[in-house]
Design brief:
The protein has 72 residues and is of the alpha+beta class. The model has no long low-confidence stretch (mean pLDDT 86). The chain is built from two helices and three strands; from the N terminus they run αβαββ.
Length: 72
């Protein structure tokens, strides 16, 4: 709901959107028109005491500006 709300505001303003998120949410963001930025993945170093945990990776996503919505 928050992604939809934010993209609706951006569409009304005619501006592009940028977000960062994990690969787990990729399907959600792509369903809202976002694409991953080329070479937009960052990996967070894991401290030694947490080496048994999975590596944390984030992606930067962008969504092109859409034309302003017509008011009814």
């Amino acid at each position: 709901m928050l992604v939809k709300w934010g993209t609706e505001i951006a569409d009304a303003m005619g501006v592009e959107c940028f977000i960062e998120g994990t690969a787990l949410a990729k399907r959600l963001y792509e369903s809202c028109g976002f694409v991953t930025v080329p070479k937009g993945m960052i990996t967070i170093p894991v401290p030694e005491k947490f080496m048994d945990k999975p590596v944390i990776q984030y992606y930067f996503y962008e969504r092109p500006a859409k034309a302003e919505k017509a008011t009814e």
